[in-house]
Amino acid sequence: MASSIDATSGGIVSAGNSTAALDIKTGGTTAISIGTGQSVTISNGPLSDADGNIRAVPSVGAAKTAEYTLTVSDVGNYVTVGSGGGITLLDDVFTAGDVVSVFNDTSGDVTITCTITTAYLAGTDTDQATLTLATRGIATVLFTSPSACVVAGNVSA
């Protein structure tokens, strides 16, 4: 028998042993189940955090129509570049594992200026000073350290 926490009665309603699953219920229905192997199942609704649904990639807002420098607040989001916009990647802003996506919502190419110490185009071994993001293309920037990144997607050197 699984242990259960029931929000309607305010406590543990059935205690199992250490090898049982833990079910968290709301209104008598299991909302979250933590299995014996630490697997987590969300039964109702999306899993979300302060940035929203974790399976979605939120936009940072309006399209950038001037040169825009990526910031830490862009991590986990996508930035849209509109007419006249461009993107700059600075050194010592991000940490290893940070990811930002860029969408070119124009009918022309967009320049990504790489002032970060080392910027690789995915699949190459050459540091790039600038990259070109194709029309209606998407680039994903993975920061591997505060001074290095890899850019993948509809980009060229």
How many individual β-strands? Answer: 17
The rough form would be described as elongated
Sheet having the most strands: 5 strands, mixed
Mean pLDDT level: 86
Q: Helix- and strand-based class?
A: mainly beta
Strand order of the largest sheet: 2-1-3-4-5
Q: How many structural units, i.e. domains?
A: 2
Order of helices and strands: EEEEEEEEEEEEEEEEE
Helical stretch tally = 0
Helix content: under 10%
User: What is the beta-strand fraction?
Assistant: over 45%
Amino-to-carboxy terminus distance: 59 Å
Uncertain runs are 11-15
What oligomeric arrangement do these chains adopt? single chain
The radius of gyration computed from the alpha-carbon positions, rounded to a whole number of angstroms, is 22 Å
Features:
5-stranded mixed sheet, 157 residues, mainly beta, single chain
Characterization of the model:
With 157 residues, this protein is mainly β. It folds into 2 domains: 3-45, no CATH class; 57-156. It is built from no helices and 17 strands. It has a 5-stranded mixed beta sheet with strand order 2-1-3-4-5, with no helix packed on it. Strands 8-10-12-14-17 form a 5-stranded mixed beta sheet, with no helix packed on it. A 5-stranded mixed beta sheet has the order 9-11-15-16-13, with no helix packed on it. A hairpin with a 4-residue loop joins strand 1 (3-6) and strand 2. The radius of gyration is 22 Å and the shape is elongated.
Short description:
With 157 residues, the chain is mostly beta strands. The protein has strands at residues 3-6, 11-14, 22-26, 29-34, 40-42, 48-49, 52-53, 67-69, 78-81, 86-89, 99-104, 110-114, 118-121, 130-133, 138-145, 148-153, 155-156.
